[in-house]
Automatic annotation (TrEMBL):
Gene3D superfamilies: LURP1-related (2.40.160.200). InterPro entries: LOR, LOR_sf, Tubby-like_C. This is Protein LURP-one-related 15. Belongs to the LOR family. Coiled coil: none annotated. Transmembrane segments: none annotated. PANTHER family: PROTEIN LURP-ONE-RELATED 1-RELATED, PTHR31087. SUPFAM superfamilies: Tubby C-terminal domain-like (SSF54518).
Length: 212
């Protein structure tokens, strides 16, 4: 009996080789499905746990709010810091910077994320790598509805999807105050980078009252 043909991936998502932003170890040659659980009813908002399909914790996110900047740290499953995400204080477009480890030094900058306009009905972010300081053309972009947990991440200004979010709510998750959604990351795309973008999306929209 022949197996059914797999559903074709969206156009342009098949990278022939890894595209590491944070690290090659986070680039898999196959699609990666991650489950994101945001703890809603906590004193320090912005805490996440990210697991694989087997429930193994891959990443954790911890917020640091007793500082001048809104700062969050992406940790691996063992609790080791991978990157630090920091919101710039003076920024009309909600600009965030992502640094290696727990550093906030410019020499450790990996990429910058900013909202394309101050007033937006839908999420629309542009991502600029550290080697693109002029920011004339974005390296990646994020579009969609954060409130519906339905966002797409694209390569540059193209229509090539490299990752997408899906809402995954259960009655139990609502009762215990947790926000569940899943993310599909396409082959050879850095899934730690994708998780970092989701954390920034949450940071931007939490300051907007969790709007779109």
């Amino acid at each position: 009996m022949a197996l059914p043909a797999p559903t074709p991936a969206p156009s342009g998502t098949q990278f022939a080789s890894p595209v590491p932003i944070i690290g090659t170890q986070y680039c898999a040659p196959y699609p990666v499905d991650l489950a994101v659980v945001k703890k809603v009813l906590t004193i320090s908002d912005g805490n996440f746990v990210v697991t694989d399909v087997n429930g193994t914790v891959i990443f954790k996110v911890k917020g640091k709010f007793l500082t001048i900047h809104d700062r969050r740290v992406l940790l691996d499953g063992a609790g080791n810091p991978i990157v630090t995400l920091r919101k710039k204080i003076v920024s009309a477009h909600d600009r965030w910077q992502v640094f290696r480890g727990e550093s906030v030094e410019e020499s450790d900058l990996i990429f910058t994320v900013k909202r394309t306009s101050v007033l937006q009905l839908k999420a629309k972010l542009h991502v600029f790598l550290a080697n693109n300081p002029k920011e004339e053309v974005c390296d990646f972009k994020v579009e969609g509805s954060w409130s519906e947990r339905s966002c797409m991440i694209y390569a540059g200004e193209s229509s090539s999807i490299i990752a997408q979010m899906h809402k995954k709510a259960t009655a139990q998750s609502v009762l215990i105050g947790k926000d569940h959604f899943s993310v599909t990351v396409y082959p050879n795309v850095d899934y730690a980078f994708i998780v970092a973008l989701i954390v920034i999306l949450d940071g931007i929209n939490s300051s907007d009252g969790d709007g779109e």
